[in-house]
Amino acid sequence: xxxxxxxxxxxxxxxxxxxxxxxxxxxxxxxxxxxxxxxxxxxxxxxxxxxxxxxxxxxxxxxxxxxxxxxxxxxxxxxxxxxxxxxxxxxxxxxxxxxxxxxxxxxxxxxxxxxxxxxxxxxxxxxxxxxxxxxxxxxxxxxxxxxxxxxxxxxxxxxxxxxxxxxxxxxxxxxxxxxxxxxxxxxxxxxxxxxxxxxxxxxxxxxxxxxxxxxxxxxxxxxxxxxxxxxxxxxxxxxxxxxxxxxxxxxxxxxxxxxxxxxxxxxxxxxxxxxxxxxxxxxxxxxxxxxxxxxxxxxxxxxxxxxxxxxxxxxxxxxxxxxxxxxxxxxxxxxxxxxxxxxxxxxxxxxxxxxxxxxxxxxxxxxxxxxxxxxxxxxxxxxxxxxxxxxxxxxxxxxxxxxxxxxxxxxxxxxxxxxxxxxxxxxxxxxxxxxxxxxxxxxxxxxxx
Length: 449
What we know:
41% of the residues lie in helices and 0% in strands. It has helices at 12-18, 22-37, 46-49, 118-143, 161-167, 174-179, 218-245, 255-266, 303-333, 335-365, 401-411, 441-446. It is built from 12 helices and no strands. The chain is an all-alpha fold. The chain is extended and about 125 Å long.
């Protein structure tokens, strides 16, 4: 038997040298081998180790294609998953020392003052048409190509704005151009809009009603009066509603009674103002009385009474259960009416949606509040049937064209609505003398002070 070496375990250095750790190393090596090779065969299933060959025929080997890469060149190819970096294409400007292409040799210049034959003109036209077709084909072929580098410069010197948008930034949508307005300020045509500056969709000036003319037809005059009557009835209804909601809710009290009530409230509890007489109470308040007094032997319920109460409770419960069962059966027969109720609900919801949409449309047309005051449209001027005259001289002037134009500006959010200034508020100028100024008696006599 080997004796174990005993050493100091106070420090990590002693612990490493003296203690045997071979069992730990062997266990770790086995684990590493298992990770490399896999699980042992004893733990694996038969399906993982073996497979049944049901083909019976030898598969034909695929012939290698002629264009396949050679195996010896596979070493030169990269095996990494990262794609190779593409070289940046830098545009190089070359000096064009060559002269422009001369005209075709087939096309001969016409002689000055000479007569040209018809055959020669036809041949010349054919050659020119062919030349134009070739040029158009070249332009169309190079039109869709994208050879320019966008990131070297957004705009070349001497290039116009419209040409740049057509050729270079044709593929960018308008939203991207507006978003990058700081980088490309010349490309975006976006303008900042303020809610106070936007005008509503109302018409510039309303065409006056035909019933307002000095010699209207009976139908137009009646329709005008009907419209004005409808507006007046709406105003009267609104006033009545406001009175009903505010004034009529509170009880009306006379002035004298109101003053007496205020005095009574203020003098409550003060000596001399309240009655000192105390009502005599016959009952003794000192005794303690319970809400549910204790039962005695004489007042105790008998067994017969308890049985009757139990029987009545059971009967009531049975009656309630029978009612519930009847209700279930009646609900089954009521299914056909439920569909009608659902249809009514759908119609109501659709009506509410339509109302909301109409409100939104009216909000777009109606005026927005620019200032503190609300815009109120004035009523149309009208004349009663007895006031209508046959000639212009006898008719009285009604309405004001300047006022109508002013109201139309307010309605279209161009001017803010103001209030009538009945008084001219002038600031009082305070006059005072400077302390350094010397006042002489001649000055006082001059101004009669």
